[in-house]
Amino acid sequence: MRKGVAALFVVVVMAVVVHEAAAVVCNANELAVCAGPFLTGSKPSVNCCSKLKEHQPCFCQYIKNPAFKQYIESPNAGKVATACNVTIPTNC
C-alpha cells in the first residue's frame, strides 16, 4: 500500500512541475515593462519584478538569442535582478 501511495505522490508532483513549466510562454516582449530599468539601472517596478520572476525559466533562451543577450548580460540587468530578487543564470 505504501508503494502505491509513494508512486501516486511522485506522479502528482511531476504533473505539477510539468504544468508549471508549460505555463511559461517565453515572449521577451512581455519584459518591455523592464526596459527603463534595464537601460538605465533605475529601480524596477513591481510589475517588472513580477514579469522577471515569471520569465526566469526563459533566461537561458534569451541569453542564447543575440537580440536579447546584450540586455540580459548587462550590468543594469544585474542590478534589476538583484532588486527583484531574481537570479540570472551564468551558465546555460
From TrEMBL:
Q: What InterPro entries does this protein's entry cite?
A: Bifun_inhib/LTP/seed_sf, Bifunc_inhib/LTP/seed_store, nsLTP2
Top-level taxon of the source organism: Eukaryota
Give all residue intervals belonging to the Bifunctional inhibitor/plant lipid transfer protein/seed storage helical domain.
26-92
Q: Does the keyword Transport apply?
A: yes
Q: A Gene Ontology molecular-function term?
A: lipid binding
Q: Pfam families annotated for this entry?
A: Tryp_alpha_amyl (PF00234)
Q: Which SUPFAM superfamilies match?
A: Bifunctional inhibitor/lipid-transfer protein/seed storage 2S albumin (SSF47699)
Q: Where is the signal peptide?
A: 1-23
Q: Which UniProt keywords apply?
A: Lipid-binding, Signal, Transport
Please give the name of this protein. Answer: Bifunctional inhibitor/lipid-transfer protein/seed storage 2S albumin superfamily protein
